[in-house]
Design goal:
CATH architecture of the domain at 5-122 and 248-390: 3-Layer(aba) Sandwich
Distance between the termini: 17 Å
Shape: globular
Order of helices and strands: EEHEHEHEEEHHHEHEHEHHHEE
Helix content: 25-40%
CATH superfamily of the domain at 5-122 and 248-390: Thiolase/Chalcone synthase
Radius of gyration: 20 Å
Number of strands: 12
CATH topology of the domain at 5-122 and 248-390: Peroxisomal Thiolase, Chain A, domain 1
Length: 395
């Protein structure tokens, strides 16, 4: 089996719902990330890209079903470069990296671009198709922005609760307090602001033409524990989850450049990380937030390392509560998790977040001269994905 490497990573800023990127179509967001990636690799002949694989969670509107193919054409890649779109909800971009790295591992591909895109601002409303031509009853529009829609009536009710209610159930099971959640959320904003000020993200993020956004739009450096503690709960009157300790609806795109060891010659650059292990896991849909515990365990086993070897973790902060459940379940030092902020501050465009995690993780391993890192996401309907990266400096 060939080894698969990450050679570069780039993303757009992540915009607030209805904010700085809301006027940009998702296919254009994805195309911009592809254009930027190619511009950063001038030695690469685009004809040598075997495939573009992008993740996208909604796909019901301007993505035009296969946003990867649309984006390759809009970005001016040769028409011979194939494009495939995958959907594993919040894990879609990481699933795209799974697909691309596996193709490299078995020798089907040498160079693959993988990542994802989401415009939650522009996700359309959908109307159920009627069973007969002229129905008498009213029909309701359904938002495709987030969560369950047009649910099969045979699905058990306890499974299809909202993501927020599911997380309330999870934090009850694991006794996660409101105080811990707000402290975690405040840390996310503090570290994200510091990372931007320290230049951590400048080399990873490219602006989108026609917009003024140059930084992630959701960061609130004034989000103290006291201010977060004053926010009203969102899902239960007596609950703990608020808009402040959950990730915001977001827009953005992110991609990584994958290649085999021999691809370095064509790319004219050395790899920044090796994909050492992958893991997928699933559990009861309402407890999706804890699924990364097992996914990461499987990825570590396949990388033949343990948590004691890991120096950095990028865990997607869908909610502070589920992030804390995972950190507690792993038994790791919270200080190594999301050292440059997480999704609560940076944003969570569903289909793009997995590639954002990998880019940040590879950057962290390089800057801090760490050998091993883990990236993981929980996924709605009870799933999770995780990847182990190795810093090539230590290989």
């Amino acid at each position: 089996m060939n080894e698969a490497f990450i050679y570069d990573a780039v993303r757009t800023p992540f915009g607030r719902y209805g904010g700085g990127l809301s006027g940009v179509r998702p296919d254009d967001l994805a195309a911009r990330s592809l254009e930027a990636l190619l511009a950063r690799t001038p030695d690469l002949d685009p004809e040598q890209i075997d495939e573009v694989v992008l993740g996208n969670a909604n796909g019901a509107g301007e993505e035009n079903r296969n946003v990867a193919r649309m984006a390759t054409l809009l970005a001016g890649l040769p028409v011979t470069v194939a494009g495939s779109t995958v959907n594993r909800l919040c894990g879609s971009a990481l699933d795209a990296v799974f697909a691309g790295s596996r193709a490299i591992a078995v020798g089907d591909s040498n160079i693959v671009v993988a990542g994802g895109v989401e415009s939650m601002s522009r996700a359309p409303w959908v109307l159920p198709k009627t069973e007969k031509a002229f129905p008498v009853a009213d029909l309701s529009l359904v938002s495709t922005t987030l969560g369950w829609r047009l649910v099969n009536p045979r699905m058990p009710a306890e499974w299809n609760v909202s993501l927020g209610e599911a997380t309330e159930q999870l934090r009850e099971r694991h006794n996660i307090s409101r105080q811990r959640q707000d402290e975690f959320a405040s840390r996310s904003h503090e570290l994200a602001e510091k990372a931007w000020n320290d230049g951590i993200y400048q080399d990873l993020v490219v602006p989108v033409p026609g917009t003024e956004l140059v930084r992630d739009e959701n960061i609130r450096p004034d989000s103290t524990v006291a201010r977060l503690g004053a926010l009203r709960t969102s899902f239960r009157p007596e609950g703990t989850i608020t808009a402040g300790n959950a990730s915001p609806l977001s827009d953005g795109a992110a991609v990584v450049l994958l290649g085999s060891a021999v691809a370095a010659r064509a790319l004219g650059r050395d790899p920044i990380a090796r994909i050492a292990g992958r893991g997928a896991a699933a559990n009861e849909p309402q407890f999706f937030g804890a699924a990364p515990i097992e996914a990461a365990a499987r990825a570590l086993e396949r990388a033949r390392i343990s948590w004691s070897d890991v120096g950095a973790v990028e865990l997607n902060e869908a909610f502070a509560a589920q992030s804390l459940v995972c950190i507690d379940g792993w038994g790791i030092d919270p200080a190594i998790v999301n050292q440059h902020g997480g999704a609560i501050a940076l944003g969570h465009p569903l289909g793009a977040s997995g590639a954002r995690l990998l880019g940040t993780l590879a950057q962290t391993l390089t800057i801090k001269r760490l050998r091993w890192g883990v990236a993981a996401l929980c996924i709605g309907v009870g799933q999770a994905l995780a990847v182990v990266l190795e810093n090539p400096e230590f290989a």
